[in-house]
Amino acid sequence: MKVAIHSLSRSLRLGITAGALLLAQQALALGTDAGVTVSNQATVAYTVGTAAQTPIESSPTGNATPGAGAPTTFLVDRRVDFTLVETSGGPTTPVAPGDADVIASFTLTNNGNAIMDFDLAVADFAGAVFGNADTTDLGNYRIRVANGDGAGGVPDLGTDLDFVDELAEDAVVEIYVFADAPLTVSNGDYANIQLTATAADDADAVATPGTLDAVLAESPGVDDPAVIESVFADTDNNGFEQAEDSYEIISAALEITKVATVFSDPFGSGKALPGAVVEYIVTIDNTTGAADATGITLTDLIQIADVVLQNGVYNAGASNISFNAGASFCNADDAVDTDADGCSYDIGTGALSITVPDVTAGTSTTVRFQVLIPNT
């Protein structure tokens, strides 16, 4: 019984050891570099009757002569395996009308067993991204590949480059797509893009660093042990990966309304008669906007042949422009804004210029001024 147990234990240990060696060999094979030559030779020792014979070595073409064999060799083939992932920190990349060089970022990882080049291309994408339908286009896309981090965490991007050069096994590189937003895009629009990375030849002795090597095709047919062949192991086994990002237009959404209301008239009729004062109310509405409207200037041209801009009608007679029903004021009584309050009026031309306080997202602002219809 002890012998049986001992034999079983020894067999189990040998089996575990053999299994571990097999797994180690499999793990090693998976990561062995493409192009490595694997060479070995089998030797067969045998007896005839009771006489030991001279061992015979193997040969790829067959060998019966002791000492005349040859090793069997093959080249490790190329496993083309990589990922491309959007990493802008989204789900969307915010952009405002008129913004330039807005960055969408992606990560490319080489999971294969060879140094690889990758061809890069970016295009508008008509499909939905992060659930957002594509409603506009930005254009002027440029691709840059990060080559390190500069001071203050600013990526060192170099120049525009539409390929990744010699990405090592297990290495990761950041890819940035730059876009410019025209002034015509509107708040709430989405511009969807798609970046494509296509596998190209590895950086072996025939590759040229600094240039994009030939785009790969999967090797057909049975294995040729003398040739480095390519097998696609990426997501769809097609040699290219795609990732999308969505630029979200976040902007002010201004709606401007101007109404005229009779403020007073000589007869209490509420009519715009000679001698009546008419108040203009300009509403700058940003209630549907997602960003503040800043640096606002309102200009108007008063018909000086027909009406006269009134002075001293707001702020206890100190101002003639009112914001938000008296929340603040300015005085447009000089042609060149000598009092530097942001408002001016040219009495010779009727040109009125008003600097309006910022209109924050989700709010509106009113601007009021009055004109007199002369009696004479």
Architecture overview:
- The protein folds into two domains: 78-249, Immunoglobulin-like (Sandwich); 255-372, Immunoglobulin-like (Sandwich).
- 8% of the residues lie in helices and 37% in strands.
- It has one helix and 26 strands.
- The strands form eight sheets. Strands 18, 19, 21, 22, 23 and 26 form a six-stranded antiparallel sheet that branches. A five-stranded mixed sheet has the order 9-17-15-11-13, with no helix packed on it.
- The model is unreliable at 1-30 and 149-153 (pLDDT under 50).
Quick recap of the structure?
It contains one helix and 26 strands. It is mainly beta.
What's the helix count?
1
- Tell me the series of helices and strands, N- to C-terminal: HEEEEEEEEEEEEEEEEEEEEEEEEEE
Proportion of beta-strand residues: 35-45%
Helix content: under 10%
**Distance separating the two termini:** 132 Å
Q: Label the structural class.
A: mainly beta
Overall shape: rod-shaped
> Could you say what the CATH topology of the largest domain is called?
Immunoglobulin-like
CATH superfamily of the largest domain: Immunoglobulins
How is the main sheet built? 6 strands, antiparallel
Mean of residue pLDDT? 86
**Which residues sit in consecutive blocks of at least 5 with pLDDT less than 50?**
1-30, 149-153
Keywords summarizing the entry:
376 residues; mainly beta; Immunoglobulin-like; 2 domains; 5-stranded mixed sheet; 1 helix; 26 strands; 8% helix; 37% strand; disordered N terminus
Task: Give the SSE map.
Elements: H1 2-31, E1 37-40, E2 43-44, E3 47-48, E4 51-52, E5 56-57, E6 72-75, E7 78-80, E8 82-86, E9 93-95, E10 102-110, E11 116-124, E12 142-145, E13 163-167, E14 172-179, E15 190-200, E16 230-232, E17 240-249, E18 255-264, E19 277-285, E20 296-301, E21 308-309, E22 321-323, E23 328-330, E24 343-346, E25 351-356, E26 364-372
Parallel strand pairs: 7-16, 9-17
Antiparallel strand pairs: 1-6, 2-5, 3-4, 8-10, 10-14, 11-13, 11-15, 12-14, 15-17, 18-19, 19-26, 20-25, 21-26, 22-23, 22-26, 24-25
